[in-house]
Write a structure and sequence with these properties.
By secondary structure, the chain is mostly helical. The chain contains 14 helices and 6 strands. 49% of the residues lie in helices and 8% in strands. The strands form 2 sheets. A 3-stranded antiparallel beta sheet has the order 1-2-3, with helices on one face. The chain has a 3-stranded antiparallel beta sheet with strand order 4-5-6, with no helix packed on it. It is elongated and about 95 Å long.
Amino acid sequence: MANIEKRTSKDGKLTYRVKIRLKGFPIQSATFERLTDAKKWTQQTESAMREGRHFKKTESKRHTLAELIDRYCRDVLAKKPKNARDQVRQFEWWKAEIGSHALADVTPSLIAQYRDKLAGGITSHGKPRSPATVNRYMAALSVAFTTAVKEWGWMDDNPMRKVTKGRESRGRVRFLSDDERIRLLKACKESSSLYLYPVVVLALSTGMRQGEIMGLTWDVVDLSQGRAILHETKNGERRAVAITGHALEVLKELNKVRRIDCNLLFPAKERAPQKPQKPMDLRTPWETAVKKVELQDFHFHDLRHSAASYLAMNGASLAEIAEVLGHKTLQMVKRYAHLSEGHTARVVASMNDKIFGK
């Protein structure tokens, strides 16, 4: 029910004060200089309240972006420890820049303005932010907005839907040549680290990520079946990894000299009292080996690229490569498409032979 009250100020100015009382909703009020505007607002507001639209708009004015970020980090992100560190840093940037804005004022144009500021910034390593990095910052905020829309009722819509993302590069593909692979494996075998060689062999033969390899425990490795079950992966899905050939033999040999005080395949040398065992420090022996064989522009993650490239060059389809690497879509493995062109040509030739004859 609406009530319009006519008011006259000390200077004789006439205004109209509107109050709307509707069961189940807080009292809504506004002041207008014209009666027609007051009646129009009353009609629109009552209609929006009955349809559930006005409440959301009110909520977006009541909460700031900083409040949204704090709640999301506390209630949602805290349950996703794998992504927490990077996303907290991303959220802190948004919070520092536009956290004081009410959600109703966080428009696509405002986000686009700060997207451009983000793109022009410098990383902690002194390098310009890449389009991929900017997109990760935007993706984190977009997920938080979606949660506020669907679960909290703080917003009507996700403003990020109308903001254009930056165009990302196709992705870096650096893989070992045959000569580089032989020299690197030789250096790893000669390393003072007992575990460097097995780690690199696993990375090259399975395409597992560094974190997945470092987190391997003997209870998830089945040497008789030649496989490992990864329960914690980047995309959150459990994945079975085939371990065969030389990699399997290397693990069988490692199993003979495994430590009985730790379940990790590649544990650190020393264990602090009353603290859980940590994986080995891979950085020093890895960098020493890379430097020894003079590999240019090569990082540990490039072993994963090497595995994918070898698969492509040996006839694996993009779908098969994605399955081995644990990608949900083919987008990430399209960078290896040029390496499997020979396989594609053979498939097309085989099809033509069948329908037209040799």
